[in-house]
Write a sequence for this structure.
């Protein structure tokens, strides 16, 4: 099989993607080769273009194709709100809801003593700079409702509470959620944060 | 988000791969962008090269990067045996076992009256030609043990039984298989094909 290396190399690289293993990588590459015009050529073009142009936004840490991501480059989104998220994937999830009209700040993870991740590893200093530089009226902490996420949220709140208004996402029953399937923590949070009907 | 199109396009294309959906495609693309040097650039190179060079072997139907696949180009594999498989994935599975030293013939599917797939859609005429052109002593039918696979095997056997020796893969208990978990059909086949110890 000496000469099949180009396809072998592609299978090996595809198998390194999250969610794909050796078998599904083989299946994906065979599918690509069969759908050459519809999928393989466009995918090769798209991945080549992203490999050249993808970069991190120097302001918020979002992934884009220029130094400033589309959100930071759009003056209409400078409404004084900054939504702080752990990860670019979280930013994309917020954007899909189409409800937030301000800008973001991607921390790049959570504080973790075990992994030696402190504030300087997390773009927290950059967040402090942005509060000084941009006319920020509200910081919305949209960190994951995990122990690490909430620890990080508390740390940021401690740092910033004297300088800017701080809010965080509401915790409670997810839309469509059934009480019987919810964990105790969520039910407790939803009960504590109950509102008048 | 107008300017994020290059990354959006890549996510959309990745989501069309078997085994990936929109969420895992987003995760894969973020992973790629983060591992630019280690994964994104090599993958862009590899997929670009495959997009240019991948083609079907004119002799057996295997996928390779030249008109004759490495197996058909290798004179050492012209041992008179041709292993008939449904699909390139089956050929690769046979090759991984490293036990078969002959050549292959990929049918490209199975006969199916419902889907209007007859012998001419299946590279069966090419198989007949190869028996005439190459010095073939044995055809090994390695079709899947499904109804469609076995129907196709019977059809090929009918066509070729006067011209060449025909064999098929043994059916029985898989290595490591537990009887309690096997279906009745497999147990029946294994019992009928029992051998002296």
């Amino acid at each position: 099989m000496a000469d099949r290396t180009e396809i072998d190399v592609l299978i090996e690289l595809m198998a390194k993607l999250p969610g794909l293993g050796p078998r599904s990588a083989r299946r994906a590459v065979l599918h690509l080769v069969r759908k050459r015009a519809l999928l393989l050529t466009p995918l090769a073009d798209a991945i080549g273009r992203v490999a050249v142009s993808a970069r991190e936004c120097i302001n918020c840490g979002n992934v884009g194709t220029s130094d400033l991501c589309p959100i930071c480059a759009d003056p209409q989104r400078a409404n004084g709100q900054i939504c702080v998220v752990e990860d670019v994937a979280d930013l994309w999830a917020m954007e899909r809801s189409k409800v937030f009209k301000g800008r973001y700040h991607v921390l790049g993870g959570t504080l973790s003593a075990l992994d030696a991740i402190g504030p300087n590893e997390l773009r927290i200093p950059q967040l402090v700079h942005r509060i000084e530089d941009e006319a920020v009226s509200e910081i919305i902490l949209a960190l994951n409702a995990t122990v690490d996420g909430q620890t990080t949220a508390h740390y940021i709140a401690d740092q910033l509470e004297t300088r800017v208004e701080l809010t965080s996402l509401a915790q409670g029953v997810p839309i469509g959620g059934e009480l019987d399937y919810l964990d105790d923590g969520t039910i407790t949070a939803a009960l504590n944060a109950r509102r008048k009907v």
